[in-house]
Specification:
This protein is mostly helical and 477 residues long. The chain contains 22 helices and 5 strands.
């Protein structure tokens, strides 16, 4: 329900209109938004990380292969992959890394604008501005902003779905219903786990079931083509598990991000501004949206062998976290102080990650390998994807996507998990052997140390989680 309608039902409450918000508060919020957005985009040119290289594999051979390959990989993300292919046409001018990440950067800007609109629609402009700043200050959101993956686009679609659900319930305009149905269906097509955020709509909408039932049915009908793929993904879920059983502390960190909670508490503690009168907001919608994704994934991860409790998987709750934080601060704190504190705490907390998107410098690692390896050397590369089984490594090029983005010479493919049988038997005939693994695969390095007597092991540099080793045969004394 719009603010004007809800305020009318609350006696003796007089709130300023959005146009009466002090210029200084609006300026502080906008400057903070800009600073956080720029800070989030700081590493857009850095090396692609593992999952991003899979996006490159999906789009690298033209539009005719995009839709087939996005279904072949672990999840359906056709809307994002289509945008990534379009954006990849800019690669000759701006580089492959910025080109693939540009859709996410644009999407997160749109998502922040929609969070502002949703916060303003639920409460007022103070809430909207602070919600938008808080949204960008949630680290997984900032990470998604330059991640060549579908999460930023999914967040924008999810917030649009929530906004137009409320607008449809308030006004019954058919345009709002159409936008709501399309946005909701596209959330599911973008990433299945982001659709957990839509569950809150089912709980909130039960009071309006007659009005919403046709829309829910339309969304279900649009998503029917995904049924077979989703069932197959469920049946093969163990092949994609890479996380471990989460602890209670990880759950608490998920529902109360430390940097955001600190900024909220500091603002309330140090603000001298009197508390602003509360406005009835859809608390049930926000609380279910806030809690359901992390709670559901946490329970699944501790009660079953399917481990899904990972920040980007419960990212669908982030807009609700931001709006609740923005609402709390807007009622009890100073907008200017809150905006600047949000930005400052975020910047201080994540300053150390200012140069790289993640600690996987595949670009640097492959460049160092190319600088030394020759056709006479043996180059062993272990698939960094958990799906890289001995049966699949020679059948699926995507399992070695980093070497497709950053090409190297001929290589021997090794499975993700250590497998002695996959290691070539003639390595002792080579003067030099190179090994490319990630840190969890160092068992391959230990095996080579023990089975290559007379070889000296040397690292080619520091590439974060990527390890490149050279084993060189030493001359007889």
């Amino acid at each position: 329900m719009p603010v004007s309608k809800r305020v009318a039902s609350v006696p003796d409450v007089k709130l300023p209109s959005p146009d009466q918000l002090p210029f200084g508060e609006v300026t502080a919020a906008c400057v903070s938004l800009l600073l956080v957005f720029v800070f989030a985009a700081r590493a857009i040119t850095s090396s692609l990380w593992l999952d991003e290289t899979a996006t490159y594999w999906v789009i690298k051979d033209g539009l005719q292969n995009v839709f087939r390959r996005c279904w072949e990989w672990t999840g359906a993300s056709a809307p994002y992959d289509l945008l990534a292919w379009v954006s990849s046409l800019l690669a000759p001018a701006i580089g492959i890394e910025p080109a693939l990440r540009l859709p996410s950067l644009v999407a997160i800007a749109i998502a922040a604008a929609l969070v502002y609109q949703l916060g303003r629609y639920m409460a007022d402009q103070r809430t909207g501005l602070l919600s938008a700043v808080a949204f960008l200050c949630i680290h997984p959101v900032a990470f998604a902003a330059i991640d060549a993956r579908p999460y930023a686009l999914g967040l924008a679609l999810l917030v649009a779905s929530m906004l137009y659900l409320l607008k449809w319930l308030d006004s019954s305009r058919r345009l709002y219903a159409v936008i709501y149905v399309i946005a909701s269906a596209l959330v599911v097509y973008t990433h299945y786990l982001l659709a957990l955020g839509l569950v809150a709509q089912l709980v909130y909408g039960r009071r309006h079931i007659r009005k919403l039932a046709p829309l829910f049915l339309a969304i279900g009908a649009l998503c029917l083509p995904l049924g077979g793929h989703l069932l197959n993904l469920f049946e093969t879920r163990q092949a994609h598990v890479f996380s471990s059983t989460p602890s209670l502390s990880l759950f608490l960190a998920a529902v109360a991000p430390a940097s955001l909670a600190a900024a909220v508490l500091l603002t309330i503690m140090f603000s001298r501004r009197p508390a602003v009168a509360s406005i009835p907001i859809p608390r049930q919608l926000l609380l279910v949206w806030f809690f359901f994704p992390p709670v559901f994934l946490f329970l699944v991860s501790i009660l079953s062998d399917t481990k899904l409790f990972y920040p980007r998987y419960y990212l669908s709750s982030a807009p609700a976290v931001a709006i609740l934080a923005g609402y709390a601060v807007s009622r009890m704190g100073n907008v200017s102080m809150a905006s600047l504190l949000f930005a400052a705490v975020y910047t201080i907390t994540f300053w150390q990650s200012s140069s790289e998107h993640v600690s996987e410098n595949w670009r640097g690692a492959m460049a160092a390998l190319n600088a030394q390896a020759t056709a006479e050397d043996a180059v062993l590369v272990a698939s960094a994807f958990v799906e890289g089984t001995p049966q699949d490594i020679n059948r699926r090029d995507v399992l070695f996507a980093p070497q497709l983005v950053y090409p190297i010479g001929p290589m021997f493919r090794l499975p993700s998990n250590f497998d002695e049988k996959a290691i070539p038997a003639d390595l002792l005939q080579k003067r030099r052997v190179f090994l490319v693994v990630v840190q969890r695969q160092m068992e391959y390095a230990s095996w080579l140390v023990h089975h290559l007597p007379g070889y000296r092991a040397e690292s080619l540099g520091s590439f974060g989680a990527v390890v490149v080793l050279k084993f060189e045969k030493q001359a007889n004394p």
